[in-house]
């Protein structure tokens, strides 16, 4: 049976399935965090702009149904990021405010990096929103170093 391939022998080369699993897990975690960060940032913006964040306003801004917002808010409540009562506004917990600010800072860093590379500002804004949630701390630190020019040599 030399020519017959089994599922285990036709799979990826040795070692790559472990890295694939790790990559898929990270991607799934990134997507879950992305959703939470987008919601807490938006809730923070709505509160800053109008004093409250209502589910109907969140749904309108995100282009999703009220049911989707309600389900996501329930998950954010379970994760300790927001508080809300039925038919009332949504508010951030201290942890939710911290997450919103961290996401906002990361967005600004990615945006500045893309603009520094020469990406037009409108495209950079759209791209930053898409990738900001998926960058490792090592990549974010590299972006910071890229943006921060080395100290000028003394006497130069």
Question: Can you tag this structure with a few keywords?
Answer:
mainly alpha, Arc Repressor Mutant, subunit A, two-stranded antiparallel ribbon, 7 helices, globular, disordered N terminus
Describe the structure.
By secondary structure, the chain is mainly alpha-helical. It is 67% helix and 4% strand. It has helices spanning 7-10, 16-50, 55-62, 66-78, 94-116, 121-131, 137-147, and strands at residues 82-84, 90-92. α2 (16-50) crosses α5 (94-116) and α3 crosses α4 (66-78). It is globular and about 50 Å long.
Topology summary:
Blueprint (H helix, E strand, L loop, with lengths): L6 H4 L5 H35 L4 H8 L3 H13 L3 E3 L5 E3 L1 H23 L4 H11 L5 H11 L9
Helix pairs in contact: 2-5, 3-4, 5-6, 5-7
What is the CATH class? Mainly Alpha
Radius of gyration: 21 Å
Oligomer: single chain
Q: What is the CATH homology-level superfamily?
A: Winged helix-like DNA-binding domain superfamily/Winged helix DNA-binding domain
Task: Describe the structure concisely for a colleague.
The chain is built from seven helices and two strands. By secondary structure, it is mostly helical.
